[in-house]
Amino acid sequence: MTQTKEHIYFIGIGGISMSGLAEILASRGHQVSGTDVKETAVTKHLQSLGIHINFGHRAENITDDITLVVYTAAIHDDNPELRAAHEKGIRVTDRAHLLGQIMDEYHDSVAVSGTHGKTTTTSMVSEILLAAEKDPTITVGGILPTIGSNLRIGNSPYFVAEACEYFDSFLQFNPFIAIILNVESDHLDYFKTPENIRRSFHAFAQRVPDNGLLVISEKIDNVEELTDGLTCHVETFGLSEKANWRAENIVHEADGRNSFDVYHNGEFFTTIHLHIPGEHNITNALAAIGASAFLGAAPEDCVKGLHHYTGTERRFQLKGKKDGITVIDDYAHHPTEIKATLAACQNIPHNKLWCVFQPHTYTRTLALFDEFADAFEKADELVLAEIYAAREKNIYKISSAQLADKIKESHPDKKVTFMQDFNSIADYVESSADKGDLVLTMGAGDIYKVGEMILER
Fold it and tell me: Cβ contacts of residue 275 below 8 Å, gap of 6+?
C-alpha cells in the first residue's frame, strides 16, 4: 500500500475479511468508508471506529473524493457502485489483491490454505504466536475469543491470514510460510476439474520464497506432485511415520478433548492437550506447530497456545443445553468436513446424534451430490434444510429434497427428513429429541438459527 493517505471504499465492508482489511487501513490513517446490505455487529464495530457505512448499493455512494474501491468475488460487474467507480475512472482492486499487498509488508507472513480447516488452523497459529509474544497481526475468518474479534493489529513482522483458493485468490499472496491442509474438489463452478484445483495449489506453493517454508499434509493424494520443483523448505504433517511432524499416543477423551505427543523428524517435541475434538483437529494442530516452530515458537509456546484455543465461532461451537439435549453448531459444508465433524461427535457421550444440515450453494451441491449422499453415515437422524443460495441463482433446479431422496435410496436404513422452514425443523427436533441426545446444526449458511431457536423455546 502507498504511504499517501487515501479514501478507500469497501463494497461489502461487513464481510469477515473485508472488515479486517478496512480496520487495518483505518488504523494507518487512511479514510475508510464502505457499504453493506444490512447493519450487523461487524458494521456497528466499524462505525464505532469512525468508518462511515452506507446500507444499500447505490451509484451515488461513490463520491469523487474516493481514490480506491475494493470489492470481493461476490460483487458482480453490474453492481451499481462498482460500475460507478469504473465510470468515474477510480482505481478498483479485489479483496485478495489488497490482502496480498498488505501481506507483502510483513516479512514473517503465514498464509493458511486448504479446501477446509483454514479458520481453525489460522486461529491455532495465531494462538501459538500470541503465546510466544510475537505480537502478530491476525486476520481470521471467524471470531477468535482470545482477541474478541476476527482481527488483531500487531506491531511486528508477523502476519497470519487465511488464503482462499476460490477464483485463485491466494495467487495474489507471497507468504513466507504457506500451509496446505488438504486439496479436494470444491468450487467447481470456477475450477471445473480437480486437476485445475491441484494446479492452483501447486502455483500457490511456488510463491513461497527460497528461505521460506511450505507445510503440507502428507495425506494429500500424490503430494509429491504438489511439491515438485519447489525451492523453499518443505515439511509434511500427518499421522504416518513418514510425516516430518506427526502425532503419536493419541487419546480421545470422553469430553471430546484430544491429547497426543508431537514428534518432529522422529524426535519428541512436546505433548499437546486440545480442547476441541476430532482427528482432523490433531492434524490441524500439527500444521500450526510446524509453521510456528519455523518462526521460533518454542515447544512450551505451542503447548500454551493450543491449550488456550477453545475454537472459533461456528467451528464445533457449543451453543447450549436444554432439557438434557446438547446443541452444537459447525460450519462444515464439504463432504469431507461433514464426515470429520460427525466422527468427532462419536467421542462425545450421547444417545442419539441428530444432524441438521443446510447445503451451501447450488453448484457445490450439484458437483458433489454423490459425495454428500454418503457423508452422513455416522448421524443417527438427518434433517435437511433447503440449499443456502449465497451468491448464486438456482439455474440448476436442484433442491435438498433431491438430496434427501438420494440418501434414502443409497442408505435405506437412514432416517432422513427434508423441511424447508426453520420453524418446522426446530419444532420437529425439539419434539422428537430426548434427554442425552446431541443436536448438530451444520452448514456455512444460517442454519445455526435452528439451534438457537431450539434453545430459546
Answer: 257, 307, 309, 310, 311
Cα–Cα distance for residue pair 49/61, rounded to 1 Å = 20
Contact in structure between 72 and 98 (CB atoms under 8 Å)? no
d(CA 239, CA 33): 47
CB of 341 within 8 A of CB of 314?
no
3-state helix, strand, coil in the chain (%, to 5): 35, 25, 40
Provide the residue-wise pLDDT of the chain in tens; the chain has 457 residues: 556 899 999 999 999 889 999 999 999 999 999 999 999 989 999 999 999 999 999 999 999 999 999 998 778 899 999 999 999 999 999 999 999 999 999 999 999 999 889 999 999 999 999 999 999 999 998 889 899 889 999 999 999 999 998 888 999 999 999 999 999 877 778 778 989 999 999 999 999 999 999 999 999 999 999 999 999 999 999 999 999 999 999 998 877 789 999 999 999 999 999 998 889 999 999 999 999 999 999 999 999 999 999 887 788 898 999 999 999 999 999 999 999 899 989 988 899 999 999 999 999 999 999 999 999 999 999 999 999 998 789 999 999 999 999 999 999 999 999 999 999 999 999 999 999 999 999 999 999 999 999 999 8
Within 49-193, where are the H helices?
A: 80-88, 95-103, 118-131, 188-191
Looking at residue 346, the DSSP 8-state letter turns out to be T
Query: Under a CB-based contact definition with an 8 Å cutoff, are residues 180 and 205 in contact?
Result: yes
Instruction: Reply yes or no on whether 87 is catalytic.
Output: no
Residue 431: count other Cβ atoms within 10 Å of its Cβ: 7
Chain mean position to CA 189: 19
Give ∠ CA 280-270-341 in degrees, rounded to 5: 10
Catalytic residue, chosen from 23, 43, 118, 137, is 118
119 is catalytic: yes
* Short-list 438, 272, 296, CA closest to 355: 438
Distance CA 246, CA 248 (A): 7
| Residue 135, CA distances (Å) to 109, 138, 169, 360 in order | 13, 9, 26, 36
Helices (H), 354-420: 362-367, 369-373, 400-410
- Among 43, 72, 119, 326, the one annotated catalytic: 119
pTM of the full structure: 0.83
Cell digits for 168?
485463485
β pairing state of 68-71 and 353-357: unpaired
162, 165, 184, 337: the active-site residue:
162
Instruction: Identify which of 326, 360, 321, 357 has the alpha carbon closest to the alpha carbon of residue 341.
Output: 357
